[in-house]
Amino acid sequence: MKGEYEVSHGLILFGHGSRDPEWARPLREVAALIAAAPGAPLVELAFLEFLEPTLDQACDRLAASGVTRIAVVPMFIAQSGHVRRDLPERIEVARTRHPALRIDLAVAVGEDTRVQAVMAEVARAALAGQV
What is the pLDDT of residues 4-17, one digit of tens each? Predict the structure, then answer.
């Protein structure tokens, strides 16, 4: 056991992707915050399109590191069509490629009330000219 998470656990932050590589900067920053915490799981980014790594590539990396359980967190504001349709299809492909891996799909991060509270706080700060 390594801190709060077992060494065999991995986390994939899954984003849509963009033709502009700078678009992924906030996701890289979130991944770095997770990885810097004591007892952190292994963290990878993955993208639906335009950027790499893909979900398959991220799963390959984690599997090669000895991970046996992965949580895929859609870094989307809502349960969009991509999260409801495209991502589950890609996860099924990854499960077929790595049958020993347990791959769980979380809800879109924006569906979490804690994230919604922070978004509301940022919106109020914008109105107050603090952003």
Answer: 566 689 999 999 99
- 7, 88, 59, 3 alpha-carbon torsion, rounded to 10°: -10
Beta strands in the chain (DSSP E): 9-15, 42-47, 69-74, 102-105
Kindly report the pTM of this predicted structure. Answer: 0.91
Axis-axis angle for helices 87-97, 55-64 (nearest 10): 30
The 10s digit of each residue's pLDDT in 104-130 is: 999 999 999 999 999 999 999 999 887
Catalytic residues: 16
110-128 in b/e form (b: 16+ CB < 10 A) is beeeeeeeeeeeeeeeeee
- As a whole number of angstroms, the distance between CA 86 and CA 58 comes to 16
Domain 9-127 fold: Rossmann fold (3.40.50)
